[in-house]
Amino acid sequence: MRRPRFGSPVGWLSRRRRHRLAPVVLLMVALGGTGAAYSAFAPTTGAQAATGPSAATVEEGRQLFLRNCSSCHGLNAEGTADGPSLIGVGAASVDFQVGTGRMPARQLGPQVEQKPVEFNDEQIEAMAAYIASLAPGPAVPDAEQLDYSDADAAEGGSIYRTNCAMCHNYAGTGGALTGGKYAPALRGVEPKHIYEAMLTGPQSMPVFNDNNLTPEDKQDVIAFLKATEEEPAPGGSTLGKVGPVSEGAVGWLVGLGGLIACAVWLGAKAR
Does 143-229 match 55-134 at the fold level? Predict the structure, then answer.
């Protein structure tokens, strides 16, 4: 086989490939190429916003956090014995917890109670922006993600019954859990907060990220829950849609009680 001439590119590479720094250079080139390819082809996640919040908004959120949250979550959101770390929880978690009135917590206990919201939308957005600036995390869903007008409520019902009904009840009226905890009712909850709860998994709830339930699946679940809110009750009172407990109580107290009353009345009349 003819040897390459030293003046040719092949000959230049042949001489350099035995250099002691050649493996290091090749490794750096490979790493750089891998990073460039990932940046070019990796899908954009919900945590990546097209335009980030301004520095003034982040600073306003930091000041609100220091005044209202740092006593439990630490001055740098690193967490304390009274509150978990917020680094990496994302803007969606802050928007859900503060936007539903659960935070700041009124008192410590098995579960944080929901109460009236203490901040306006601009303040909540600022605090969410500050927490999001500390580390990547789930972003607040946008209008497109929350649009369930074309969602499949029937498919959402199937997903809900598989993943949610065992805690939140078949109709979203909530239910009791262990250790003094409970699954809250989902009736009347804003679609944004339902989506954020699935995305972040607050308290005892598991996280349903986009790998578990796609954005379309989440829209289907929201469509199902909103459809159950508007569902008529042709059979009469729904008894709260809490299942066999209330129905059994009515059956025993009203049905059986009525039969006993009739038996007593007939016995008294026969005397």
Answer: yes
